[in-house]
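Entry 14. Structure prediction run on the chain below.
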Amino acid sequence: MSEQPDALDGAYLRRVALAALEEDGGFDDVTTAALVPADLSGKAVLLAKQAGVVAGLPVAAAVFRAVDPSLSFRPLVADGTRVQPGDLLAEIEGSTQAILRGERVALNLLQRLSGIATATARLVDAVAGLPTGILDTRKTTPGLRALERYAVRVGGGRNHRWNLATGILVKDNHWRAVEAAGGSIESAVRRLRERAPGMRVEVEVTTVEEAQQALGAGVDILLLDNMGLEEMRRVVEMARGRVKTEASGGITEATVRAVAETGVDYISAGAITHSAPALDISLELDERF
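Output returned:
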């Protein structure tokens, strides 16, 4: 079973930073090399231009260190801080060439992760006072899952299964394949338990009847996919004390509390990773250097 990498592990951050810098041509910046003297030193700040939750300052630091290990990166706030427009997030000092070469990659990652943390925090805030947990999904940017799921945690959310090898989730297309092979929900659950003993079996259902069948087959978690609120309440009542319930499908900041009030244990939202708008953050050189 594959393990989740530590999103803030130094070696992992360096690999991500170097790959992104290579993609951006950060070590062969024609404009900066032509216009900025190699011996010019300066200072820059990272500045919030929008309210939100900061996530990814260690990632930005890793980018600048990958460009030039002598650069100084001093965070002025911690990941998880709620900031307002005009708040300073970090100071960078050293080679001006190096600062400019790392600027876009550092901002891309910091803005992306902060956007995810902000989107997550909004859902978490919307269900405040209720026991429902907010989960992410596997709808992440390929190659950046560890960082994006770190940002979800920074925003107050929780992580779903790490990947296909670390959790069982039977979805609609699985059922089509099972039925095409002549199987049933009971035989499917039995085979899953034989194949992965000790692993919880989660099954997606879309109706009360499907939920009843899944409960009868002995599943551990019901995923209520795009289910109406009244149906959801009925399934939650059926499942209470027997299995956990998770709601998913079209979850937004406007609808999440009503879904949580049905009594589901979890709400998963792919939008917090695949559609979170980047938080507006800029890098500005100090004109006084």
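The radius of gyration is 23 Å.
Filed with the rest of this week's runs.
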